Amino acid sequence: MLIIGILGCLIAAQAQQKRYSARVFDGITYQPLSGASVYNVNTKKFAFTDKNGRFEINLSLHDTLIITKSTYRQLVAPIDKKLFSGYEDFFLYYKATMLKEVTIIGINPSYEGFKKDIVTLKLPDYYKRAEDVHLSEWQRANASYDEKGGNILSLGGTVTMSPISFLYDKYSRRSKMNRLYNEMVSYEDEVERIQQKYNREIVSELTGLEGEELLNFMMYCRFSYYDLVRWSDEQIKEKIRTNYFNYQYDKISHEQE
Question: Residue 91: which residues within 8 A CB-CB, separation 6 or more?
């Protein structure tokens, strides 16, 4: 009886396990992600998505999948009855923070060229107003420099950045990184809100599409992360409606051909 009971448990366990297949997409562009890693925490087995974003892996009810890909946020997917018995696509979202815009300054790679760039560099207009300024002995003795802001000379309640500080602020890697960091922080909240501003539920409600056709339409939209960060909720909805009209027109034209 004990042997029969053990065999029954083994058969029941085998019956609950199956070969599971699903796809992984970018959550915004809806393009399939190839090379994404799919890890079953319970069985310690790996699988990888193909060029169409599809993967296959053995799993049982209540297993947990961890789906990862470089530059994307990790997705933890517990396998409930709905996932185990049906079919579900998985969506990953970028973990990178968006920038408003990036200004690229080209610096001459040769030392002689760099010296020429510095010599011919045009300083801001406010330096012209300071060309004829002469400091007295008292002013020189009481001049102060702000360590936080760099080489900043403070005289009589006014603040003037020296040309050396201007060059440092323009070319130094540290200053560039500080500027980029401030840009990233200013958009951080909007990046976090992308999933709430644009998702399958919103698009389905506006278009009435479901299933595979909904996926095809969202691939047709091809919205970028940068656009969705900048657009308001109403602008996104208006873009969806416009794209849906164009999608229907293109579909009818294709069928007539």
Answer: 24, 25, 26, 27, 75
Residues 88 and 107 placed together within one structural domain of the fold: no
Task: Give the model's pLDDT for residue 147.
Answer: 47
Position 183 pLDDT exceeds 60: yes
Domain count, the chain: 3
- CA 186 from chain centre, in angstroms, equals 14
**Within a domain: 9:** no
- Would residue 107 count as lying in a domain? yes
pLDDT in tens, 99-119: 555 555 555 556 677 667 666
Structural domain contains residue 23: yes
207 and 229 fall within a common domain: yes
Q: Which two tokens stand for residue 108?
A: 């001459």
Q: Residue 160 sits in which domain range? A: 97-127+143-172
Indicate left, alpha or beta for 187 from its phi (over 0: left) and psi (-120 to 50: alpha): alpha
Instruction: List the helix and strand counts (H, then E) for the chain.
Output: 11, 10
Helix 233-256 to helix 200-207 angle, to the nearest 10 degrees? 60
Q: Indicate whether 86 and 112 sit together in one domain.
A: no
Please check whether residue 13 lies inside any domain of the structure: no
Greater model confidence, 176 or 235: 235
**Distance between CA atoms of 82 and 66, rounded to whole angstroms?**
17
Q: What pLDDT does residue 153 have?
A: 46
Q: What is the 3-state secondary structure (H, E, C) of 74-132?
A: CEEEECCHHHHHCCCCEEECECCCCCCCCCCCCCCCCHHHHHHHHHCCCCCHHHHHHCC
Q: How many CB atoms lie within 10 A of CB 206?
A: 14
| pLDDT given for residue 240 in this prediction | 95
Q: How far apart are CA 41 and CA 55, in angstroms?
A: 16
